[in-house]
Amino acid sequence: MNTSALVVMLSTMLLVTGATIYFFIRVLNAPHKPEPDSYLDNDDEIERQAPRA
Amino acid sequence: MSANKESWGSRVGLILAMAGNAVGLGNFLRFPVQAVQNGGGAFIIPYLVCFLVMGIPLLWIEWSMGRFGGKFGHHSTPFIVDTMHKNRLWKYIGVFGIWTNIAVASYYCYLESWTLSYVFHSLAGSFNGLDQNGVSNFFDQYVSLGESTFGIPYEPIFFFVLCLLLNTWILSQGLAKGVERVAKIGMPLLIIFGMFLAYKGFTITAGENGAINDSSVGLNFLWTPNFDELWSPTVWLAAAGQIFFTLSVGMGTIHCYASYVRSKDDIALNAMSAGWMNEFVEVVLGASILIPISIGYLGIDGVVDLVNSQGGLGLGFRTLPYLFYQWGDVLGAVAGVMWFGLLFFAGITSSLAMGTPWIGFLQDEFNWNRRPAAWSFGLIVLVLGMPTVLFFKYGVFDEYDYWAGTVSLVVFALFESILFAWVFGMNKGWREITSGADIKVPNIYKFIIKFVTPLLLLWVFIGSLITPKGGDWAGAFSNGWELDDSSIINKIKNSNLKRQLAEATDPAVIEQLQDTLFFVNASRILLVVVFLSIAGLVYMAYKKRVREGRI
To answer: d(Cα B158, Cα B151) in Å, to the nearest integer?
Structure first.
């Protein structure tokens, strides 16, 4: 490949792949919100239950 | 009370469903062709700029509008936008968010059915032993309802109905058990298939398996920047248009999905994650398959001819199945299954999204249960989609695509950006975007959403309305404004068809063009009738709300 094409391709692909991975990891590591939240699968997880008043 | 008590199963599931909604056939068939036609590697600069100043703002606008409407129990755009301002007319603008989806699904499901059919044909070895013309003729025969290798009469109709049944059944299972489950299976498979084909796209060697070029020739062709093109408004318009279609903004599907998110939960990070996931599929995978493989076997001139005559769709369906078989019978079949399989998953995750606003509307406003609402969607799409199957060669498919899948998106996005930033108010809008956010949203976006995004959208709309001949903007300003046939105004006037009719001398061609003109106008009337019917239902829903004291 010629240099300019290689530079544009690699920088674009690295930027896009990096941003995709970065934001997805941020989602996975985001602090959990107490129930009730928007999602059904975690409804029974004890650590997500809001403390009783 | 609404019958709508649905929820998403998990946050990752929601993001995959949103990304699946955005990832469509255009990521693999439209983006690389747009890049080649608009400056190669330089196209990526306006493309990424438009993603940052138009794509991301629109994602945030639509996610936050959806979540805001969801607080009031609304899951479709007519009543989502109705909650944002007291003017009663807004809900009729919101009709676009249902109409677009129904109209697009009508032809999109047909397209999706091709991919499903081609998966089976790849498995059955239908393309084995055919030359390039043979594979191309196979496609022509298929869409003209000719008998295909399977011997099923009216095979396209069979696969269209099968595809529609599958979509409807999945929709009837609900958000978490239907749509989300398909996204959780489909998106990872799509990425795996895409990575395999991208690897093949990067490793073609001239002289092996009939290849005439190394991969580098195709990649150079796609990525070498022609910086002169950066100053062309046509290139910027193409980049803005591509960002639109790829993110599925301006459709009403994002609003609908986000309306099931509670107000304390994040949308800002979710939108970024789903948006960038779509960009990964488009820029990294989409750019590494179609063009490098095609140029490896057909050369640059051959591919340019094919792109100009058939577009990305033609290249994907008429040419790639033949090229895959250059790798041997087994690998050819496997690559065919992967290519059409990834297109199928890209398609179905989008068409499922198109069903949800209509279903949400019926559940919210007329207390329908999910199942009958889903089947009503299937029935409407079947009735509206049949003309695209039966009269494909008369341009019905293209007509639906142009008005519902192109113009409507820009119009609705323009309205919603104005509503959000100027009518609802930027301060309230900003609170909606940042409420519960798991990331810090840069303050510069307050300015971008208020000024840059609406102006860009206005420019895209005006640019499409009065596109100058040949996309020559400088010439149009200095030598008088002659409209291009692709401009909205000339499309409405059917200028291209009428010119062809005036120039035609062969009676058979004249008859074909006259029929095409009839079907083009008939499709438009049908689309207008559907829009007005939905607007009528919105009016009935409004009256019902008034009677019930909900307004």
So the answer is: 12
**Closest-approach residue (CA) in chain B for A42:** B10
The answer to whether residue B176 neighbours chain A at the CB level (below 8 Å) is: yes
**Residue B46: CB atoms within 10 Å:** 22
Dist. CA B354–CA B254, nearest whole Å: 10
- B184: how many CB neighbours lie within 10 A of its CB? 17
Residue A49: the pLDDT is 72
Which value does ipTM take for this structure? 0.92
Query: Is residue B222 pLDDT above 80, yes or no?
Result: yes
**Diameter over CA atoms, chain B:** 75
B14 touches chain A (CB under 8 A): yes
Enumerate the H helices of B127-267 as residue ranges: 132-143, 155-172, 180-202, 215-223, 233-247, 253-258
The answer to whether residues B115 and B90 touch, using CB atoms and an 8 Å cutoff, is no
B253 Cβ neighbours under 8 A, 6+ residues apart: B21, B101, B353, B354, B356, B357
Cis peptide before A36 (omega within 30 of 0): yes
Q: Where are the alpha helices (DSSP H) in chain A?
A: 3-29
Whether residues A16 and B223 touch (CB distance < 8 A) is answered with no
How does pLDDT run across B3-25, given as a tens digit for each residue? 678 899 999 999 999 999 999 99
pTM for the structure as a whole: 0.94
Interchain contact B439–A (C-beta under 8 A): yes
Confidence (pLDDT) at B67: 97
Q: What letters, b where the CB count within 10 A reaches 16 and e where it falls short, cover B371-389?
A: eebbbbbbebbbebbbbbb
> In a 3-state reduction of DSSP, which class is residue B294?
helix
Give how far B353 is from chain A: nearest CA, Å. 18
Determine whether the interchain pair A16/B216 forms a contact, defined as Cβ–Cβ distance below 8 Å: no
Instruction: Confirm if B47 and B381 have CB atoms less than 8 A apart.
Output: no
Task: Give the per-residue pLDDT at B148.
Answer: 64
* Furthest CA-CA distance within chain A: 67
- Dihedral angle of Cα B520, B240, B196, B108, to the nearest 10 degrees: -20
Contact A4 B225 (CB under 8 A): yes
Cα-based distances in Å from B239 to A35, B22, B36, B412: 42, 16, 12, 19
Reading the block at residue B517, the tokens are 């003109």
Instruction: Report whether B44 contacts A7 (CB < 8 A).
Output: no
3-class DSSP state for residue B224?
A: coil
